[in-house]
Amino acid sequence: MKRATLLCTALLALSGCAKESKPATANVPPPVTLDCSRGACDPGPGGTLPTPPPGGGGGGGGGDTYSGATATLTASAGALAQMFYNSHPNNPQQVRINIDINRKSDVVVLSFVDGGRVIEAGLGVVHPYSGVTNESYNGWVSHNSTPVYKGFFQDQYGAVVLVIDKTVNTGDGTPATFVGGSVYFQNFDNGYPNNPLQGPNLMCWQITYGPYDCRTFIVPGGPGGTVSMTSSLFPNNKGETRTVNYQKLGDFVGLSRAAAGL
Questions:
Q1: Under the phi-then-psi rule, with left for phi > 0, alpha for psi from -120 to 50, and beta for the rest, what region is 6?
Q2: Among the listed residues 25, 29, 229, 258, the one whose alpha carbon sits nearest the alpha carbon of residue 140
Q3: pLDDT digits (tens, 9 = 90+) for 18-49
Q4: Nearest-10 Cα torsion for 35, 41, 44, 49
Q5: How many CA atoms lie within 13 A of 50 on its CB side?
Q6: Is pTM, for the whole model, over 0.85?
Q7: For residue range 104-157, what is the model confidence (pLDDT) as tens digits?
């Protein structure tokens, strides 16, 4: 926690990632405060965090919307407080999830409004320090003959697992127009001075030991077990050296599959 706070302060001083704005009025949106505790101040090579959209639903391309698709995320204040642990949300509202598989640094963007501020964090498949990219586990799988999308995404403070298991099967082979699912999160145990920074060559779901092992869906085999995305519908376990399990952040419905690139 202490290290995260110091890093946030340094980033703000050096890069000016949180921008000052005039007080919110009926015609002026609230100022955007990127939460450094989730790595949103440094979206990674080639990535920029978009401006929060004014409402839910699919979309993209507009000056006041994300690319990809946006939906309301039904999440508890307690879960938000744990994931956004350096923001201390008091009364989070307008909680949203935005997904764009075509982005790499910020595939999943989670945001909410609290006390006139917009807090958001972007997690993706690009290493937060080196630019290494991996999405080997992400994609559609079959559970009980039902298509389910699963994916790992991370920033420098933790990881999320995205599970999209709500689709409408029209029976004619046409993909569902709108989908829904859930998001689970796991923060890293990277507090200074106990642990160094995440190594530059592997994403957290490729790591099998230590504080940056963010795997789940683990089955026996290989060093520390093997990830099998079909072993369970939802995150069901953790790496043997981790102390925290994945926790459910929230659920969403009505996400445009086409706009999200799914």
A1: alpha
A2: 229
A3: 333 333 334 444 555 555 555 444 444 444 44
A4: 70
A5: 28
A6: no
A7: 988 999 989 888 888 888 999 999 899 899 999 999 999 988 899 999 999 988
